[in-house]
Automatic annotation (TrEMBL):
UniProt name for this protein: Insulin-induced gene protein
Localization: Endoplasmic reticulum membrane
Single GO biological process annotation from the record: cholesterol biosynthetic process
Keyword field: Cholesterol metabolism, Endoplasmic reticulum, Lipid metabolism, Lipid-binding, Membrane, Steroid metabolism, Sterol metabolism, Transmembrane, Transmembrane helix
């Protein structure tokens, strides 16, 4: 009996393990589910963020690539446009230059032909230059070839003067006005008139006087080295051509003292070259501007 009581008391005194409560079990399950759900949400958010980052990167890179592509294409496009504009401007400048050249040539030709008629008529009236009788009976008392030849020579000389100035890099700006050009023409006509009107003891004195007047014309209205050089060259070439024409009997001079011509004729050619050169320079400034 006593043993049974002791065994019962021991059973009651043995600590029993507490039973897990349903609430704690449910709480732990819910916490675990929430943790898993949160981890899944975090992974999904990370994936979305990565995708958004990739989309943004692609959207940013594509305009940049487009810009880069445009930048890569822009030099060729700009070079093409610049070459087209430069070719168009060069074509227009060439057309303008040719148009100005034709205008200046026509004006110089007309001036040279008119001056040749007037000055040659003066020489013929003073019996300095002799043409055949059938030539004297014409309207202008001159051969038909004199005006076109003198006009062509005036056009060449008038275009040559500003061209030489530009190549030498010495633009002629001394007395660049039409009043000075007209005074130069008047002095040239006076020198030509003096060669036919003035009477000296011999042709040498007349030649020296006309040479001094011609140099004075160059000093007064030109004063350029190119003008002096071209005037001397024109006088030399024109004198040779005149000698050739007179030698072949095309016309002749009375009292020749320099082979077949007068000794003062190179002075006339020199002053005429300076005068036509001044006209050409003034036309180049006016028409080109």
């Amino acid at each position: 009996m006593l043993g049974a009581l002791l065994s019962v008391w021991v059973c009651f005194r043995t600590p029993e393990k507490p039973m897990p409560r349903l609430e704690s079990r449910a709480w732990s399950c819910s916490c675990t589910a929430r943790g898993r759900h949160r981890s899944q949400l975090g992974d999904t958010a990370a994936e979305l963020a990565a995708k958004v980052g990739e989309m943004l990167g692609s959207s940013v890179s594509s305009p940049s690539l487009a810009l880069v592509g445009r930048g890569a294409r822009s030099p060729s496009t700009s070079s093409t446009s610049s070459s087209a504009s430069s070719s168009a401007s060069s074509t227009s400048s060439t057309l303008n230059w040719s148009q100005h050249l034709v205008q200046r040539s026509v004006v110089l030709f007309v001036v040279g032909a008119f001056m040749a008629l007037v000055l040659n008529l003066l020489q013929i009236q003073r019996n300095v230059t002799l043409f055949p009788d059938e030539v004297i009976s014409t309207l202008f008392s001159s051969a038909w070839w004199v005006p076109p030849c003198c006009g062509t020579a005036a056009a060449v000389v008038g275009l040559l003067y500003p061209c030489i100035d530009s190549h030498l890099g010495e633009p002629h700006k001394f007395k660049r006005e039409w009043a000075s050009v007209m005074r130069c023409i008047a002095v040239f006509v006076g020198i030509n008139h003096a060669s036919a009107k003035l009477d000296f003891a011999n042709n040498v004195q007349l030649s020296l006087t006309l040479a001094a007047l011609s140099l004075g014309l160059w000093w007064t209205f030109d004063r350029s080295r190119s003008g002096l050089g071209l005037g001397i060259t024109i006088a030399f070439v024109a004198t040779l051509i005149t000698q050739f024409l007179v030698y072949n009997g095309v016309y002749q001079y009375t009292s020749p003292d320099f082979l077949y011509i007068r000794s003062w004729l190179p002075c006339i050619f020199f002053s005429g070259g300076v005068t036509v050169g001044n006209i050409g320079r003034q036309l180049a400034m006016v028409i080109t501007a």
